[in-house]
């Protein structure tokens, strides 16, 4: 995919470390020729991000709290001062109180429900609103990350499944809103992956092993596969793909039950 994104530039939000899905996307986009800017939240994540950003030739990093309007405004003012237009934004941000990602959904607290939906779903709309002026001239791509827990009950995913369902609905509505201006909006839905975020889900190892053994391709997705999908969606090759939830899960989503040998 060398050169597929030559001349394009954009923002990556949500890199936690080198195993982050957001990093897999950033690396693939950089290898395809894109210029990148990054956001992070807090000093600790900033220190982890700095060498990664440098490794793909980026010196643009800004601390952002997506629950704070002033913080988001300041970030996009800085981005606009650096680049008058951008071609893509990758939103890889989600959060829920780990203590509530277990037990019964019946016991989800109001506070965690509101916070989870705010950070994991509303923030995508909030980011899109601020990215819009930087894309309206030439069009662009907004990408986010989801998971099949949005449509199928997944043990210990709880309120995050509801948040991802809201996120996926947001993708469709934003795609319709922004399509006339040439702005495409899509989500990538990988299977379980060994990331910092995934480790917060109870029983993550069992879930990872189960999908690895039962997916038609008998494998979970790799960072490289997710990154390649993001490059397709953000490049000219994806010019007429919008409003989609693209699954990169080895085909696991087509199954109605485990493979015969694992029943």
From TrEMBL:
EC number annotated for this UniProt entry: 1.3.1.9
The pathway entry for this protein reads as: Lipid metabolism; fatty acid biosynthesis
Has the keyword Oxidoreductase been applied to this entry? yes
On the tree of life, the source organism's domain of life is Bacteria
Q: Which Pfam families match?
A: adh_short_C2
The EC category is oxidoreductase
Keywords on record? Fatty acid biosynthesis, Fatty acid metabolism, Lipid biosynthesis, Lipid metabolism, NAD, Oxidoreductase
Q: Which reaction does it catalyse?
A: a 2,3-saturated acyl-[ACP] + NAD(+) = a (2E)-enoyl-[ACP] + NADH + H(+)
The question of whether DNA-binding is a record keyword is answered with no
PANTHER family per the UniProt record, alphabetical: ENOYL-[ACYL-CARRIER-PROTEIN] REDUCTASE, ENOYL-[ACYL-CARRIER-PROTEIN] REDUCTASE [NADH], CHLOROPLASTIC
Q: Which family does it belong to?
A: Belongs to the short-chain dehydrogenases/reductases (SDR) family. FabI subfamily.
Protein name per the record: Enoyl-[acyl-carrier-protein] reductase [NADH]
Gene for this chain: fabI
């Amino acid at each position: 995919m060398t050169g597929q994104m030559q001349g394009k530039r954009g923002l990556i939000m949500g890199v936690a470390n080198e195993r982050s899905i957001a990093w897999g996307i950033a690396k693939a986009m950089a290898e395809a020729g894109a210029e990148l800017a990054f956001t992070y939240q807090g000093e600790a994540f900033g220190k982890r991000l700095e060498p990664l950003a440098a490794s793909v030739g980026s010196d643009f990093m800004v601390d952002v709290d997506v629950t704070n309007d002033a913080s988001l405004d300041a970030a996009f003012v800085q981005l606009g001062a650096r680049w008058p237009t951008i071609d893509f934004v990758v939103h890889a941000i989600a959060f829920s109180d780990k203590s509530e990602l277990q037990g019964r959904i019946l016991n989800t607290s109001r506070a965690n429900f509101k916070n989870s939906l705010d950070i994991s779903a509303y923030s995508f709309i909030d980011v899109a609103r601020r990215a819009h002026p930087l894309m309206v001239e030439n069009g662009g791509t907004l990408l986010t990350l989801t998971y099949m827990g949005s449509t199928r009950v997944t043990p210990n995913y709880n309120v995050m499944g509801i948040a991802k369902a809201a996120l996926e609905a947001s993708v469709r509505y934003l795609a319709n809103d922004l399509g006339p201006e040439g702005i495409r909006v899509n989500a990538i839905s990988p299977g379980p992956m060994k990331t910092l975020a995934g480790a917060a889900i109870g029983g993550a190892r069992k879930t990872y092993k189960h999908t690895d053994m039962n997916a038609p391709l008998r494998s979970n997705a790799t960072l490289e596969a997710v990154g390649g999908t993001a490059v397709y969606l953000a490049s000219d090759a994806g010019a007429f793909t919008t409003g989609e939830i693209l699954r990169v899960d080895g085909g696991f989503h087509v199954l109605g039950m485990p493979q015969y040998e694992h029943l």
